Amino acid sequence: MSEEPSPDRRAAGDRTTGIERWRQAAARRDGPGPHVAARPAWRCRACAAPWPCQPAKLSLRREYAHDRPALAIYLCLLMHDAIADALRVGTGPVDPAAYFTRFLAWTRHGRPPPTR
Question: Residue 57: phi, psi to the nearest 5?
């Protein structure tokens, strides 16, 4: 299902930017919108699941396929922000192990998260 380029685009030689193409592809692939966190609740804006939701994880794995340590560092920073938001808002007790499992355990290559 391809869209017909606008007359302005056709005249300009279809100068769609890389970012614009990426956003269009993400909208087609992921449905209602990008799967990003809504702070301070840290729920997905698209599907309302705890973030990172499954589509966000898949997108992050693709984006950081070349640098898994950078993905872990990035998610560690976001986990720190999520814990700080939970403490600031006062949503209840904060379980560091649950945050680790939610934000980081899935990034470990080839190993399932530890069970208790």
Answer: -60, -45
